[in-house]
Structure formats: C-alpha cells, structure tokens
User: What shape does this take?
Amino acid sequence: MTDSASVVNGPHGYSLPLSPSGTSATLTPPPWHFAGEVVMVDYHVDPAAAARFLPPELDLGADPGQAAAVFARWQWCSESGAELADPGASQFHEFLILLGCEYRGRRLARCPYAWVDQPVPLLRGWVQGMPKQFGDVRQTWPMRVGKAGPLDSAAGTYHGTASTGGRRIVEASVNVTAKAAEPPLLHTVPLVHSRVQPQWLPDEKPPVELVTSTVTGVEFSEVWSGDAHLELFDALDADFASLRPVSVERGHVFGYAETLVSGAPLT
Assistant: This one.
C-alpha cells in the first residue's frame, strides 16, 4: 500500500534536486555560518559607468563611483555543522566587485559581478539574487610560522587573482603596513541584490525584486591596511571593462565571520 502522506507531499527539498526525504537537495536551508580571510581593495570607477549598473530605485549617493574588489577564502556550514566534516564541501574561494550606492539615503553596496569555485555557493548566490558565476580565484594566505607568506595578517604583501574560462580577469595586491582604525566601509553596509527568475513559460512575467539579507553574528578580526594595486583586464565584455579603476585607494586584509539568516525586501 502506498503511504498517503508520501503521495500528498511527494519529493521535496529546500532546493533541487527533490527527493522522497528531501536530503538530496543541493542547498540546506539557512541559517548558514561563514568564516574567512579577506583581501580587499577600495577604488573608484567612472560614476557614469557605476550608475548604469544600478536599478532605478538606487542612486550613487554621497560618494559616486565608490567601489571595491574583494577576494575571500571561506569556510561555511549549516546550523548542524555537518558540512565541516567534508572540507571539499565546506570551503570555497570568491571574488566580487562592490559598488557603493544608496536607497532613500540608506547606504548600501551593489554587487554587479561575482565568481566562486564551488557549485553550492553558486546556487546559494542565485537564491539570494547574487550574480555568481564559476571562476578560479586565488589569494595569498596568512601563515602562522615560516617565511612563505605574511604572518597572521601582519605587515606584508597579499595578492589576489581571478580567472574564468581560462582568461585572467583581475589581479590585485595589498602591501599592508599598519592596523586600520575600522573595517572598510563597503564591507560593513548591507548588500542589495536583484532576485531574478528568467522567463520559461510562455507569456509569464517573472518578478524582479530588490532584496537585502538578514545577517547576524558579524565579527571582524584586526584589519591591516596599506597601499594597493588593482587591474581589471579586458577579457570579458565592455560592461565588465567599464568597471576598471580610475583611482585606487587603500587595500585591506582581515578575517570576517557572519551568519546569513534570510532575505528581506528592500524597504
């Protein structure tokens, strides 16, 4: 006899693939805990180029053209922590670009491009409305001992690179020399994303909505800062190339942690 409950509920899961128990889903439901090491460069782009990446509800705000290039090496887990038993599932690298913006005077950051090297953070980004793609992202690691790298985020030079499809898209370096008084601004403001569902059924009009995220447990380590170099290469298209720096400011290296709880409509 067929279990009536299984007939009613059918295969399920937080994400595809669906299965009888729901455990085959690529994504576990939030909250998701993250901890990582960040190499970040503050810079400015042409304000006109930045404005073209903003939906009409957003404006450039008080610092037009403010931007950041962010490399991160992450370890994550769901509430159970089960993913930590498999480092291949709980670790990934990420590169993203942030653009400073405002919504009705509220300071935010917009991510026009992002790359990761694992499928779970790729899909998780799409759920959030974050434009993640596959790429190869690398960065210098802080070391506890030895001479093969800076020691525990102290003075030294950190590098970051990102490639996609075998093409180098960005290179950066940060020569940190001193502790900073506070974290870099664009890593402290909420991100605003567009949740997009591409049209698939004839005549449907999928919703496009602006959302932010509900985040708890934010922690910064000491932030080390110094002179930086940043270069975006003309390897993709004119849109990406338009976000090349017109000026490069400070670079930063720090540890960061947060818990991503859910999304929230931008209001």
